[in-house]
Amino acid sequence: MISRFDIDEALLMAKPERQHKFVLLFCRRGYLSIEIDQQHYSLGANQFLTITPKQFYRFLDTAGEGVVVEFTYDFFCKDDKSIELIYHNGLFCHFALNEIINIPNESVLKNVEFHLAQLHHELDAQQFEYEASLHAIVKLLLIEVSRCKIVQQQRPLYKPDAVFLHFLKIVRDTFSKRLTVKEYAAQMNITEQKLNELTKKNTGETTQQLINDLIVLEAKRLLNYEDMNVKQVALQLGFDDPHYFSRFFKKQTASRAKDHLRTLITK
Fold first, then answer.
1. Cβ–Cβ contacts within 10 Å for residue 247, how many?
2. Which of 148, 210, 232, 243 could form a disulfide with 228 if both were Cys (CB 3.0 to 4.6 A apart)?
3. What is the C-alpha separation between 114 and 110, in angstroms, rounded?
């Protein structure tokens, strides 16, 4: 459901593990080094980093003091507003775009420490309606962290809606079924056109391209971390023919590399 614990050497890991909860890391003093989906991050004093379910991670160095807050989707995402808060501004991100978030001033730091202390108290005491209280505290903490991210970023506020986020969760949970856009739309009780409109609005891509992006991201994780060969990865992702999967993977990654190069050239 939810837990809060201090960061120490016991968290150091020999190899990456898959995370199944939402994780908020906070570094108080010193520094923390962590690998997430093959990217290395170093947190300094008064910095946050988030980990989204399905990502692979491991602590590389804990030469500092900090706090980890973990919670499940079912614990926090009880309504549309809570679902949207999780992903507003890419606070938690489906696309492996983790970002270090700075606390801008002493006033915000005091608020963060207050919420973390409240969380510790509620988890320890477990008094009447403590789960409702925990949910409220986590919500306030995430709002505070989101505000920190808004202060430091140089781009428009990103506000995805709950229907689109529900779609992303279904895709991530059903890779092996290889559903079509039409089938995803039917599961959500909306039209295929509506789903395409939602995807275009939130990502600028077609629904099929977004599905392909998520499949490729999952394939990379399985190949890098699960000690699986191409045939095993293909089967797990719903591809009966590993040769077709290989062609699909190469085509998608090549296309993305070209898009990235085009973006760099036009900047």
1. 11
2. 232
3. 6
Q: For residue 219, give the nearest of 238, 243, 241, 199 by alpha carbon.
A: 238
Q: Give 187-227 pLDDT, tens digit per residue.
A: 999 999 999 999 999 888 999 999 999 999 999 999 999 88
Rounded Cα–Cα distance for residues 223 and 178 (Å)? 18
CB count, 10 Å around CB of 258? 10
| Buried/exposed 37-65: b ≥16 CB within 10 Å, e otherwise | beeebebeebbbbbbbbbbbbbbeebebe
Q: By percentage, how much of the chain surpasses pLDDT 70?
A: 95
CA quadruple 88, 89, 92, 97: dihedral sign: positive
Sketch out the chain's domains with CATH numbers.
2-152 (2.60.120.280), 163-266 (1.10.10.60)
Is-contact 149 138, C-beta < 8 A? no
Task: Decide if pLDDT at 266 tops 80.
Answer: no
Q: According to the model, what pLDDT value does residue 97 have? A: 81
Q: Provide the sign of the torsion angle of the four alpha carbons 79, 205, 38, 266, taken in this order.
A: negative
